[in-house]
Amino acid sequence: MATSLIEALESVELAAGQTYRCQVRGQVVEVRVLGPAPDSCLDPRDVRLDAWVELPPPRPAVRLRARPGKLPPPDAPFIPRDEESR
Predict the structure, then answer these.
(1) What is the largest CA-CA distance in the chain?
(2) Structure pTM?
């Protein structure tokens, strides 16, 4: 049975301002204790992350049709007068 991170941390005495590090499956994990949570903190069970939301495709509002044509020549570069005499 898998244990959630919140359940695992509830069983540990954590001190505010302390940082705890451990190694899990070859990865270094760091837990930093900031202090008591404010009253308006969300309950983790209220957070739902569903990244697979399908939105309808947008309808085109304006349709532009490109036509091939000739481009104007590029602007002539500015050459200062002191460099012309060299």
Answers:
(1) 83
(2) 0.38
